[in-house]
Design a protein that fits this description.
The protein is built from 11 helices and 10 strands. By secondary structure, the chain is an alpha/beta fold. Strands 1, 2, 3, 4, 5, 6, 7, 8, 9 and 10 form a 10-stranded parallel β-sheet that branches. Bound molecules: S-adenosylmethionine, 6-(5-methyl-2-OXO-imidazolidin-4-yl)-hexanoic acid (DTB) and iron/sulfur cluster (SF4).
Amino acid sequence: MLAPTLAEIRAVHDLPLPELLFRAQTVHRQHFPVDEVQLCTLLSVKTGGCPEDCSYCPQSAHYDTPVSAERSLTVEEVALAARRARENGATRFCMGAAWREVKDGPAFDQVVAMVREVRALGLEACCTLGMLSPEQARRLKEAGLSAYNHNLDTSRKHYGDIISTRTYDDRLRTLQTVRDAGITVCSGGIIGMGESIDDRCELLRTLASLDPQPESVPVNALVAVAGTPLASLPPIDPLELVRMIASARIFIPKARVRLSAGRTALTREAQLLCFLAGANSIFFGDKLLTTPNPEFADDQALLAAAGMRAAPSEHAT
Ligand code: SAM
Ligand code: DTB
Ligand code: SF4
């Protein structure tokens, strides 16, 4: 597919909602069973004290937030959490660290061991650890890592208003490093950070023009946390999330589009509209990294009420 232009994406994004949803569903059905949702459980294996200044993030050491720096979890603690996630029905387990970049040494060795444990349980393993070198990516791949999450977050233009300690090109370079190591790419963004609709469409344009496109695209709604520079931004209208998800589905057709942070602020009906717009993955478990997420039982009830079910694991080996 030829990379779409900003104008093409904007035109689709702004369609009357019934038309946008119809188009998104048509694409969704071509690539996925529409009654399946991938269930991913998140765990913060190293929380807080991060040197980066991402304005949305409660884990940045630059801001005084309810989150403080904690010790890293042990491999045993992570294995226990992964087993619990599997028992609850998750098929993917994502481990996050509040690092700017991966540094060689015992902390990274531990993460590699965590990946092996998660894979040994038969779960897909995903990590989000900041920037990494080709050699570090190779070690993660060798340990069985299924996917690496590294979000572009917003448009190149808006990026500098949100983060000053790294560049958009740093982000793109890391995505290429992940791709070159043969690890699948998970990359998306956040809406509700004061960006324009064009910024959102521009983010989608950049993601859609990656070749190959990301296998997984998380769409987060900002969780405004006290103490961060974005703390007082108003919540987004859920229909904006629906438009963003539908546009992601249309322009990145084969990706798992993940309805990510922000679900606690959504009604069941708003979440269902997101599924109708092409979202087919959620974070599953009562905590994201540091902020709340719906309870397991509520999500299980939501899927049951909608007649939807957990998607089977996708890891090939
Ligand atoms: N430190 C690594 C990095 O930035 O790549 C990994 C962890 S970081 C917390 C992962 C992603 O979580 C960020 O890229 C951002 O998209 C998302 N995120 C962080 N704080 C958020 C918030 N308050 N609301 C919504 N999404 C958030
Ligand atoms: C993603 O796009 N969203 C997740 C995951 N990838 C790592 C993180 C959301 C974090 C929300 C704020 C928090 O809980 O700290
Ligand atoms: Fe650090 Fe990641 Fe939070 Fe940015 S988003 S401050 S890099 S943990």
